[in-house]
Write a structure and sequence with these properties.
The protein is mainly alpha-helical and 469 residues long. The protein is built from 17 helices and no strands. The protein has two domains: 191 residues, no CATH class; 265 residues, no CATH class.
Length: 469
């Protein structure tokens, strides 16, 4: 039931229809002008009413179909009362997450990522400790688990809503205090519902295809493999969230700032921020791939406490997490095309890619099972990054493609050598937590190399320029 819930959390973004991503760009590029800002704010709250209506529909849907979901789809062995409560609760939680995601787009557009980050830490602490305390002290049942989830989701949505209200009013007063500036006369005639809808459709098409492409294996596997094996696969999927925890804040930081730079024609600032962020991301996360292949069993054992189960989960995780890293790297291509207003070509490319991979993903998952599915996800993600990502980088930046490939290859080879040495001759101890120091040692070594060659790296970044602007 819990695995089913997390699967739906990944799918709920389909209902966003690209609206949240649209408002990130609209807010960031129109927050300096009073007239434009008021127009964006008006549109934001009108669409918020629509999102609220969808959320009510989600709650109603799960309340009406809980019996079918429990007995016909999931074929759960849980008691009827417990399963019905869990499924109804899932509807409420998904509805709150849906509204919260839309509200957070305003904060991201206003470049208040630090607010979101601080609250995310507080919320995560509240969620994990609250859940543990409730299950340990009250009763270890699905009733308690989903009750705590509902309360924390409600608090989460309420806090984000309060932040949006506070920030929107404060920024409005700030603009009014500078009302004598010339930009008070600025009016963007493109800020209409129709134009917002057109941009959102490009983004929603991408979101729809992306969610289907990334979730189709899970839906197929729920039908073709035993539930116990799927639960292990879902545990591996949960590990990919570690990549998202890093890549999501990076996207939230870059999208509004780069959109502003591009709209204001600050192309040099755009290029420096984009390229330096891209290179730092690769430097920090590339070693994850070789680390999981050498020490994945050990690190997952620290989480699950069962070495045999950890080995089974890592059989999926090392491929899925590696694919998640490549996908997060590919996200930099999406960010570039989003900020420069070229999402349409990305939509066509991703549509073609998905038309080829989705049918094969269904065949692989249904015929060969979970391990083959995880490997195929990694393979087609790498191929798409090399082909489409390579084309975009080569077309829009001078020298960047060769630099990126060289750095990825160099970091991967160095990390493989370091992890192999640790695996072969490393410190052996009864303390299982010693494995946590291996990536720290590797990162320290790579950081030292980067520091030694920092001036050359800075010169390389400064030499990269946007083409065709």
């Amino acid at each position: 039931m819990v695995a089913f819930f997390f699967l739906l959390v990944g799918v709920i973004g389909l209902l966003d229809a690209g609206i949240s991503g649209t408002f990130i760009k609209l807010v960031s590029t129109n927050s300096a002008s009073y007239n434009n800002y008021c127009k964006v704010l008006s549109l934001f709250w009108k669409i918020f009413i629509f999102f609220t209506a969808i959320s009510v529909a989600i709650i109603f849907f799960f309340s009406m179909t809980y019996d079918y979901i429990a007995n016909q789809w999931l074929e759960t062995s849980l008691e009827s009362l417990e399963s019905s409560y869990a499924i109804k609760s899932i509807g409420v939680i998904l509805a709150l997450l849906y509204i919260k995601s839309y509200l957070a787009s305003f904060l991201t557009g206003m470049e208040k990522q630090e607010w979101l980050m601080i609250w995310s830490v507080v919320y995560s602490t509240l969620f994990y400790f609250g859940t543990y305390f409730a299950l340990d002290s009250i009763e270890s049942t699905l009733f308690i688990f989903f009750y705590v989830l509902k309360i924390t989701a409600l608090i989460d949505a309420a806090i984000i809503f309060s932040m949006v209200i506070f920030l929107s009013l404060r920024h409005k007063r700030k603009i009014i205090s500078n009302y004598k500036r010339a930009d008070e006369l600025d009016t963007n005639d493109d800020l209409t519902f129709r134009n917002v809808f057109k941009f959102a459709m490009n983004l929603s098409g991408l979101s729809l295809i992306w969610i289907i492409a990334t979730q189709i294996d899970k839906f197929v596997l729920t039908a073709y493999i035993p539930l116990q094996e799927y639960a292990k696969y879902q545990l591996a999927v949960e590990l990919t969230a570690a990549i998202t925890l890093i890549s999501a804040p990076v996207s939230q930081m870059l999208m509004p700032r780069l959109s502003t730079y591009y709209s204001e024609k600050k192309f040099e600032s755009f290029s420096k921020l984009y390229c330096s962020s891209f290179l730092i991301f690769i430097l920090a996360l590339t070693p994850i791939i070789p680390f999981l292949f050498f020490f994945g069993n050990e690190i997952i054992y620290l989480w699950l406490g069962d070495f045999e189960l950890a080995g089974q989960v890592n059989g999926f995780a090392k491929w899925l997490v590696s694919a998640a890293f490549i996908s997060a790297t590919m996200n930099f291509i999406f960010i570039f095309l989003y900020c420069t207003g070229r999402l349409k070509i990305h939509f066509y490319a991703y549509s073609l890619y998905s038309m080829l991979t989705i049918p094969i993903s269904i065949y692989v998952a249904s015929t060969y099972g979970a391990t083959a599915s995880a490997k195929f996800i990694f393979i087609h993600t790498v191929i798409f990054f090399l082909i489409w990502g390579g084309i975009q980088i080569k077309t829009n930046f001078n020298n960047l493609l060769f630099i990126l490939l060289k750095i990825i290859l160099l970091i991967t080879l160095v990390s493989i050598l370091i992890f192999y040495f640790m695996f072969k001759y490393g410190i052996h101890s009864d303390n299982n937590y010693i494995v946590l120091f291996y990536p720290i040692i590797n990162f320290t070594f790579l950081s030292f190399i980067s520091y030694v060659f920092r001036f050359k790296i800075i010169c390389i970044i400064n030499s990269i320029r946007l083409k065709n602007v």
